[in-house]
Design a protein that fits this description.
By secondary structure, the chain is an alpha/beta fold. The protein is built from 20 helices and 8 strands. It is 42% helix and 10% strand.
Length: 488
């Protein structure tokens, strides 16, 4: 994309912010005396464009704008204003030239074929319950790959019969605005090297404590995010209604909206909090599409599925949002923890604050983990990478702690794009993050709710100091004797 096109795109994004901002429209225009004298002959309606962010988008600040106008004549200033007005008007919907909706072929006999379920009557009869896809007792590396090496469940009856604690489901939605390939995220995480087993930090094996299943993939119409999110919401609700915790593997971050909404359909609006790990704040608004991977936060909050004061952002950095985004979060009571805050206060302080905020009010918790919160050194396979992110040593403990200290209603991991990573590390680290949450849920199941819990077995060798010294001396003597032997 050329620099001019990038600039135009940025201008259009900014226009969407001020186009519906009534408060901005009401503010008074105050001009420097020299500028005020020059624009006396310019119609007031043209000067209204200076209420918008366009002047600052073009020249940085209003001071720089006024400075740039000092050597211009009134007619030149009016021409400049006309140019900004032209951009603003061209950005608006025009019923004579624009489609208000995207038409679909409702006469197509395949209209709903992408999500039609296979009738039970076409399947062999079986008792409900999870199905193991390997003939061997060791399910890792044998049989058919599944999330966490878990058995498969297909219907809600399987979840109920198996008394399933966690149902991991793929949602291969792939409508990101930059690099594409997120629909292969579930596939990559199923075939990744690390899919389960013991967590050495806590000596907890989630698969030994929890009933975990792979619930397959949710059907997606990758020609339409708007259509797909409705079906995702249905499936997430279906899992939650059985009492199982949905773990959703994306797919792009548009999924956060239907995942939160589906859980709210079961647990109630505003009944749980959200911790959103991301380099982007994803609360964009006023775009032509109501839902994209940059807008799920705004829509989930706007529709009341989660209360803004119970929404916490972690890991924000990069060039978006600007001041207006942070002001919107502040004005709505949301909490956020940027990488700038980490730089200022240190990770331990930020983590402690975020964990305390998540526990406030004793509400249940949903975690939305966008892998681009991690530094691209750890996850190069993501569509919108931003340098300067979390390390795995920072991410794993906070995810494990959140999932042990709080009653979880759901977890999602999104934006993994394995096509961008010729190595295995992106899928590997994504699996480690999901396993950290599974470990936390298992810890809580066992009554361990201290987020900083670490097993003594792996952190303290518990050997008497005298015994260690004696063994070291004995080892040195044996080495000396070995060296004294004639060499063959």
């Amino acid at each position: 994309m050329s620099s001019i096109n990038r600039f135009i795109a940025l201008v259009l994004l900014t226009l969407s912010f001020f186009a519906v901002n009534a408060a901005e429209d009401e503010k008074e225009l105050e001009f420097p005396a020299s500028f005020k004298n020059k624009v006396k002959s310019i119609p007031e309606e043209k000067l209204e464009i200076l209420k918008s962010p366009l002047p600052t988008m073009l020249l940085g600040t209003m001071e720089r704008f006024y400075s740039a106008m000092e050597d211009k004549t009134p007619s030149e200033i009016e021409a400049y204003l006309d140019g900004m007005i032209e951009v603003a008007e061209a950005s608006k919907f025009n019923p004579e030239t624009d489609m208000a909706t995207i038409p679909l072929n409702t006469e197509s006999p395949l209209f709903n074929s992408w999500k039609v379920e296979r009738p039970q009557s076409l399947n062999p009869k079986r008792e409900p319950g999870p199905i193991h896809l390997s003939r061997y007792m060791n399910n890792f590396g044998t049989g058919i790959n599944t999330f966490a090496g878990a058995p498969v469940a297909i219907y809600p009856e399987d979840l109920i019969a198996g008394k399933v604690d966690v149902a991991i489901v793929g949602a291969p939605l792939d409508m990101g605005s930059y690099y594409r390939g997120q629909k292969f995220g579930p596939q990559a995480m199923r075939t990744g090297y690390y899919m389960g087993g013991v967590d050495m930090n806590t000596m907890i094996n989630p698969s030994d404590i929890l009933s975990i299943v792979d619930y397959g993939d949710i059907a997606i119409d990758n020609m339409s995010t708007e259509i797909s999110v409705h079906h995702v919401r249905e499936r997430v609700k279906e899992i939650a209604e059985t009492g199982a915790i949905p773990f959703i593997v994306g797919g792009d971050h548009s999924l956060e909206y239907p995942d939160i909404a589906g859980l709210a359909d079961v647990h109630g609006k505003g009944s749980f909090g959200v911790v959103h790990f991301d380099s982007h704040y994803d609360a964009g608004k006023n775009r032509p599409h109501w839902i994209t991977h940059g807008q799920p936060v705004y829509r989930a909050v706007k529709e009341g599925h989660v209360n803004p004061e119970n929404f916490i952002q972690v890991g924000l950095r990069g060039s978006w949002p600007g001041p207006e985004g942070f002001e919107w979060m502040r004005n709505n009571g949301m909490r956020y923890h940027t990488m700038a805050e980490v730089e200022k206060k240190g990770w331990e302080s930020v983590m402690e604050t975020a964990l305390a905020e998540a526990r406030e009010g004793g509400k249940k918790l949903f975690i939305s983990f966008d892998v681009d919160v991690l530094d691209p050194a750890f996850v190069p396979g993501t569509g919108t990478p931003v340098p300067g992110g979390l390390t795995m040593r920072e991410a794993i403990p906070i995810v494990r702690a959140l999932c042990s200290e709080n009653e979880m209603v759901g977890f999602e991991i999104v934006e993994l794009d394995p096509l961008l990573d010729p190595t295995y590390r992106s899928a590997l680290n994504a699996n480690f993050i999901m396993h950290a949450c599974l470990t936390g849920v298992a810890m809580r199941h066992e009554g361990i709710t201290e987020g900083d819990y670490l097993s003594e077995l792996t952190t303290e060798h518990m050997q008497p100091e005298a015994g260690i010294k004696g063994r070291k001396e004995g080892l040195r003597e044996q080495v000396n004797l070995d060296h004294a032997k004639p060499q063959k």
